[in-house]
């Protein structure tokens, strides 16, 4: 099972926390996702995505994110592609205007599986 529980790297403005249930694995991201942290987030999405069962969705909760750089957006696109290829169900929770506007500005808001709230993402039966 994934194990990120309140993990932060030294001097990092990003914290990741993972929750697991029978239907989903949720990665909560809080803070700033600049380039170095986008790489770390991408590594964690890959690692956690490899451990989930077909009955589970991989949910990335960005509600607590205050900054999201272009490397993060590239990572989201790549992980959406990877999940589709492997049969994984990736769900991205924007949760705030900072994240939503970043995705809108790049024109990919409608291309990714985006939800406004965590409860919406968890309630979607696909």
Automatic annotation (TrEMBL):
<dbReference type="InterPro" id="IPR003658">
    <property type="entry name" value="Anti-sigma_ant"/>
</dbReference>
<comment type="similarity">
    <text>Belongs to the anti-sigma-factor antagonist family.</text>
</comment>
<protein>
    <recommendedName>
        <fullName>Anti-sigma factor antagonist</fullName>
    </recommendedName>
</protein>
<feature type="domain" description="STAS">
    <location>
        <begin position="14"/>
        <end position="125"/>
    </location>
</feature>
<dbReference type="Pfam" id="PF01740">
    <property type="entry name" value="STAS"/>
</dbReference>
<dbReference type="InterPro" id="IPR002645">
    <property type="entry name" value="STAS_dom"/>
</dbReference>
<dbReference type="InterPro" id="IPR036513">
    <property type="entry name" value="STAS_dom_sf"/>
</dbReference>
């Amino acid at each position: 099972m994934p194990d990120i529980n309140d993990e932060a790297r030294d001097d990092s403005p990003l914290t990741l926390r993972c929750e697991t249930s029978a239907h989903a694995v949720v990665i909560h991201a809080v803070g700033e996702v600049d380039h170095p942290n986008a790489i770390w987030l991408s590594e964690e999405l890959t690692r956690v995505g490899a451990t989930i069962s077909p009955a589970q969705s991989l949910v990335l909760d960005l509600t607590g994110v205050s900054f999201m750089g272009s490397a993060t957006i590239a990572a989201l696109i790549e992980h959406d592609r990877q999940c589709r290829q492997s049969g994984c169900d990736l769900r991205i929770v924007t949760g705030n205007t900072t994240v939503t506007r970043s995705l809108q500005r790049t024109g990919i808001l409608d291309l990714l599986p985006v939800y406004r709230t965590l409860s919406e993402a968890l309630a979607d039966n696909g």
